[in-house]
Design a protein that fits this description.
two-stranded antiparallel ribbon, 2 strands
């Protein structure tokens, strides 16, 4: 409803579609996490444990929702990009 109100209604959207002028854009804001939070959160996730600490719990939720996974070079295991860059490739993170 907010989008329709911003573009002056459904009729305007429909007319733009008919005229092939309808365009969609997606903006993504990337918010990096600190390796000091990712490392303990990942260890607990690997053990199947949900942290009681609010910071680690939030980090675990973000890791669980991460859509970008990577294959670790040595093991081939798929891990969230956050884990790959901040924990598994700690030298690269520096």
């Amino acid at each position: 409803m907010r989008v329709l109100s911003r573009v002056r209604g459904l009729r305007v959207v429909a007319w733009a579609a008919v005229k092939r002028r309808l365009k969609f854009r997606t903006f993504v804001v990337h918010n990096f996490m600190d390796a000091a939070d990712v490392a303990p959160a990942w260890v607990l996730m690997e053990q199947g444990v949900a942290s009681e600490d609010l910071t680690l719990k939030a980090t675990q939720e973000r890791l669980g929702a991460c859509m970008h996974t990577m294959s670790h070079p040595q093991t081939g295991k798929l891990v969230p990009a956050y884990v790959q860059h901040s924990v598994l490739d700690a030298g690269e993170n520096i």
